[in-house]
Amino acid sequence: MLPYLDADLLDRLLPFPQAISALHNTLQDGPPTVTAPPRTTAEAPGGHVLIMPAADRDLFGVKIAGVAPDNPAKGLPRITGTYLLYDADTLRPILAIDGPALTLRRTAALSALAVDLLAPHDISRLLIYGTGPQAAAHLQALRAVRHLPSIAVSGRTPQRTRAFADDHGIDVAGPDDLPQADVVACCTSSTTPLFDGRHLSQHATVIAMGSHTPDARELDSHTLRGAQVIVEDVPTATREAADIADALTSGDITNPLPLHEIVTGQTPAQTDRRRVFRSVGMAWEDLSTAKAALTQWRTMPACT
Question: Which of 207-210's residues contact partners 24+ apart within 8 Å by CB, and which partners?
Answer without folding.
Answer: 207/111, 207/114, 207/115, 207/138, 207/183, 207/277, 207/279, 208/243, 208/276, 208/277, 208/278, 208/279, 209/107, 209/110, 209/111, 209/134, 209/278, 209/279, 209/280, 209/281, 210/130, 210/134, 210/186
